Amino acid sequence: MVAFALILMLSMLLAACGGDGEKEEDTGSSNGGDSENAEAKSEGPELGQKDLTEPYVAWARETISTEMLKQLLEKAGYNVEKKQVEAGAMFSSVADGSADFQTSTWLPATHKPYWDKYSDDLVKVKQVLDKAPLALTVPSYMDDVDSMEDLKGNEELGESVDWEITGIDPGAGIMQNTEEAIKEYGLDNWSLLRSSEAAMLTELQSAIENEEPIIVPLWKPHWAFGVMDLKMLDDSKGIYGGEGDQIYTIARKGLKEDAPRAYKVMEQYDESYEMINKLMPKVHKDDQPVEEVVKNFLDNNPDKVDEWLDGVPTE
């Protein structure tokens, strides 16, 4: 009986040890799976340079697109500093490496002078919008003005606006286009008033409220076309780029090697007129903070975020 009891106890002990061994083996298999999942999540371009600088001009679309790429890159693990500058500094800072990228290059017409000057040190990362037209623009109730030629020698119109075209910041490409247009169309009596986009829009809104004449340089996409009845003047000489520019994300040379993950995000980021036209009025007309507008869009459009961040590790 004693021998039988000892054999029974040994059998139970061995069974218990075998069970523990199986549990340890199962646990080891589970840990291996977690490791494989973690490895899969970490696959993709390396982070590289973690701190990035993004210069921009506070134009209607650019305010949105700059913040959009900033928040996407932060999801990918970067620290992004936005810097509001003038157009010239936006190009020169990326070219000399003191900044890393910008979302606001309109080619072939609008920013041609800047591109000609700095293109050796810049890289076109991605075309994000096609056919972005620019032109001198007037309220639709100005029935007698439909083209650039209609401005030449138009005494009644010229005197009503003091022969002034109400412009924006002097470094903007569309301002350079307008200076050229004044020469090419022989608009000798006309002058271009330098101010800012915000000041120009204030003057435009005021003129429309009083149904007064006004001429301004404008472009699409822009929220003004969604809330005001406007028409672009026909530009038969193509000084403003004909059917329209293309808009590019531009980076400094070497960024692809220095921050591979950021470069991949930029390669995958694109825009649609529907998206930009929906977001611009919230920021520029309703005065909502651009950070909140962009965050809400990203939160409510996870499929689009997944598309932009496809194959990119997030942190």
From TrEMBL:
Signal peptide stretch: 1-15
Q: Which organism is it from?
A: Lentibacillus cibarius
A single BP term in Gene Ontology: glycine betaine transport
Q: Does the keyword Manganese apply?
A: no
What is the name attached to this protein's record? Answer: Glycine/betaine ABC transporter substrate-binding protein
Cross-referenced CDD domains, in alphabetical order? PBP2_OpuAC_like (cd13639)
InterPro entries xref list: ABC_Gly_betaine_transp_sub-bd
PANTHER family this protein is in? GLYCINE BETAINE/PROLINE BETAINE TRANSPORT SYSTEM PERMEASE PROTEIN PROW (PTHR47737), GLYCINE BETAINE_PROLINE BETAINE TRANSPORT SYSTEM PERMEASE PROTEIN PROW (PTHR47737:SF1)
Q: Which UniProt keywords apply?
A: Cell membrane, Membrane, Signal, Transport
**Chief place of localization:** membrane
Q: Which GO terms describe its cellular component?
A: ATP-binding cassette (ABC) transporter complex
Could you tell me which residue ranges the ABC-type glycine betaine transport system substrate-binding domain spans?
A: 56-299
Give the region (Disordered) as residue ranges. 19-52
Q: Where is the composition biased (Basic and acidic residues)?
A: 38-52
Tell me where in or outside the cell this protein is found. Answer: Cell membrane
Q: Which Gene3D superfamilies match?
A: Dipeptide-binding Protein, Domain 3, Glycine betaine-binding periplasmic protein, domain 2
Any one GO MF annotation of this record: amine transmembrane transporter activity
